[in-house]
Structure formats: C-alpha cells, structure tokens
From TrEMBL:
Annotated SUPFAM superfamilies: Cryptochrome/photolyase FAD-binding domain (SSF48173), Cryptochrome/photolyase, N-terminal domain (SSF52425)
Recorded family membership: Belongs to the DNA photolyase family.
Protein name (record): Deoxyribodipyrimidine photo-lyase
Co-factor(s): FAD
InterPro entries given in the database record: Crypto/Photolyase_FAD-like_sf, Crypto/Photolyase_N_sf, Cryptochr/Photolyase_FAD-bd, Cryptochrome/DNA_photolyase_1, DNA_photolyase_1_CS_C, DNA_photolyase_N, Rossmann-like_a/b/a_fold
Organism field: Streptosporangium fragile
Pfam families, A to Z: DNA_photolyase (PF00875), FAD_binding_7 (PF03441)
Entries under PROSITE patterns matching the protein: DNA_PHOTOLYASES_1_2, PHR_CRY_ALPHA_BETA
Amino acid sequence: DTVVVLFDRDLRVHDHPALAAACEEARQVVPLFVVDPAMPEGPRRGFLAECLADLRGSLRERGGELAIRRGDPVAEAMRLAGELSAQAVFTGLDVGSPARRRQRRLARECANARMEFRGFPGVTIVPPGALRPSGGGDHYRVFTPYWRAWSRHRRRQVLKAPGMVVVPGGLDPGPLPVPGHRPHELFRGGETVGRRRARQWLRHCVADYADGHDDLAGNRTSKLSPYLRFGCVSPLELESLAEDGDAFVRQLCWRDFFHQVTEAFPRIDRDDYRPRGHDWHDDRDAAQAWKEGMTGIPIVDAGVRQLLAEGWMHNRARMIVASFLVKRLRVDWRIGAEFFSERLLDGDVANNHGNWQWVAGTGNDTRPNRTVNHLRQARRFDPDGEYVRRYVPELAAVPPNAVHEPWRSPVGVGGYPAPLVTTD
Ligand code: FAD
C-alpha cells in the first residue's frame, strides 16, 4: 500500500510524525510538497527553495524522493494519490484560516475518494487545543497560566528520522523551484543548516540567553525562527535538548501560546482579538517613512533597516518598531503586520499577528494601554549606539551620547531625515 505525505511547514525528516507513521505503516511513501505559484518573489521564497533542495537530498539519502508540484496543494495531493492508487494522505496540522480550510478540504476530498486522511500535530510542542483553562473557554488568553499548564503537560516522544523511505517506481520528482532572490547569507534554508545551528546554539550559547537576549547589538538570540517557521527544526526536539535553557524554552512556549490563540481565533490576521474601538490615523506618508526606515528616529529606523537587509529583526527591535507605529503614529496594526509578514523570513500568522495585536493592545496583553518609550529603550538596550550605527550608516560620525537623538548632534547627519515626532 501507498501513502502520500503532504509537507507544508514541516520541512524536515527528523521528528516528523506524519512521515514516521507513513514509513512505519505503508510499503511505499510519497513525500510531496506543492509550491504555491502565488507566493511572492523574495527572500522567503529563496529560503523555501533551499529548504526543499535540502529535504529532497535527505529523502534521497534514505532511498526516497521529494515530489514537487505547483498549484493548489489539495488538488495536487489528490491527483498524485489517484495516479499512484494511494490508500491514504497524511499531513501535518497547522493553524490559521487558510491552513484550516485546506485541511478540511483535503479531508473531504479524501473521504469522497474513499481514501484515509490523517492529520498529525507537530508544528508546536504542545498541540493547539490540548490545554484548556480550568475556568472554562477553549484556549488560554493569558500567557502565565498557559506557561504553567504547558510546562506540566506530557510530551510525546521525539521521533527518529526514518532509516529508509521507499517510493513507488517511476515517480516523477518534478523540478525544484528556482528562486529569484537568495536569502541573506546569515540564513541559508534547510534542515541540515537548521540542525547545525540548533546544536551550536544549545551547546555554546543558550546558557547566556537569559542575560543576553535583549542586547540589540550582540548576536545573543538563537536566530532559529526561520527554521522553526518552515519546520526545518522540530520545536519539541529543540526543547528536549535545551538543558540550562529555561529562559529559551519559555520563548518556545510563547510560540505555542500564539498558535493556540490562533487555533481558537483563526481570523487573528484581520480582526481585533479584543476590539477596543481604536481610532487609527490614515497617515500614509508616516507609514511609508516607517516602512523605509526613514522616520528620523534612529532606533526605529535601525530595526526596519535590519529587516530590509536581513529578512530578520531582533525581538526587542520588533517591539520598539511596532509600538512606535501603533502607539506613537497611531497607524493601524494591520499595516505594520502586513509589512512584517512580507519581509520576515520567519513571518507566520500566529506569531506575527499575535505579537502585533499584543503590542497594539488588541491582543493578549493584560496591560493593553502600556506604551514603549523608544528613546528609553534605545538607551537601555543599545547603550553605545552600536546597533543603530550598524544599520543607519548616516549616523556613523555622531557621538555616542547623541546617536539616539541626532537632532541634538553637533555634527552633520548626511541626509538622515529630521524626526517625524520629537517627544517620546
Ligand atoms: P529567540 O529569542 O532565540 O527565541 C527562540 C524562539 O522562540 C524563536 O525562534 C521563536 O520561535 C520563539 N519566540 C521568541 N519570542 C517569541 C514571541 N514573542 N512570540 C512568539 N514566539 C517567540 N516571531 C516569529 O517567529 N514570526 C513572526 O512573524 C514574528 N513576528 C513578530 C512581530 C512582532 C511585532 C513582535 C514584537 C515579535 C514577533 N515575533 C515573531 C517574535 C520574536 O520577535 C521572534 O520569534 C524572534 O525575534 C526570533 O528570533 P530568534 O529565533 O533569535 O528568537
């Protein structure tokens, strides 16, 4: 018998529940990825192409193959399953409206074709929906009680990569997508790179995370987010290896937290989770300056320019930059979230829109009116201005005590704009 395994945000062979089950239960397994032709050209597409090349290589090493098709994942999975007279389609389960619609359609089409459909959790450590607050409700709205319940929850076993993958003879592999852009050299896609990075991080750096993670100029966070986003690295396996890494594991829990919020509220990318009647300013010029890293506020511009250059931004900078847009410029969080999700290698609905709503005060923050003072944050987390100078070269000559407020600087700032707003 034959099982098609439809990959999506789980581009790995280690700890892959659907692949492991298929290899154990079926004689022949057909790993499949369907490229969405509508995916915009850009670094994320380049990262995906590298992930697929790596996954194909790992499957071939095990005697298998990765079939690649283009189009609608449901239609392509059903077409291939039909051609190969497969008995079942297995896939990983994900959250958010499009993913859930796709899973429902796939289940329906399988039922119509009298094929088995099976969905496997695996995108998070604890499956969304597995934990329910004792006071009622279908998900946790507040992080700390979730963290407590999450820490106590029993984990499934971390699964080994299959030793062998047997594909049906004559399977057409299909071409790898050819990306127009490669991602920044800091982030090469794929499980092989992701596992290497995870190993190095866990061995040498994780113990310093609690002290160092807010240091904007230092590279003291894992930078594993793109690998988690595409599932090159299993969060469960990462957690299981993270000794001395409580502070780091807590961040993985934030990731799970936003996934379980998104499972319960799949319209998180569009609708306010907690509507509070905001009156957003339709200030397109300000939003445009923000998107270009030209607000004249160095800490904000440095963050955005890091994103434009690398496809990634430090978490502390994300908070400052997002808060500046929604709380200071009073621009709708959806505009910022949309921009982030186009540019971030790690951009995904649960984490991106969940965090944006958190910052905007429409999400899960228990103190929705909190404001982030960008100047104070800049002085605290980039005390020497090293981060700002790295991404805003116009300020290279500005002395350290003025680098966060160049409008007070005695030296010229070579074309750098005057600040959009001056008070904090
Ligand atoms: P580390 O600090 O090493 O943390 C390890 C992992 O924990 C991360 O890779 C990530 O998977 C998870 N994590 C850490 N912080 C958070 C958090 N606040 N929420 C959820 N998960 C977290 N993260 C994304 O993965 N995708 C996004 O699209 C995204 N958008 C964001 C938008 C805003 C406005 C803000 C404030 C945060 C956003 N984050 C997002 C969360 C966080 O900034 C990144 O996960 C983190 O900076 C990634 O870098 P790292 O891998 O070095 O993280």
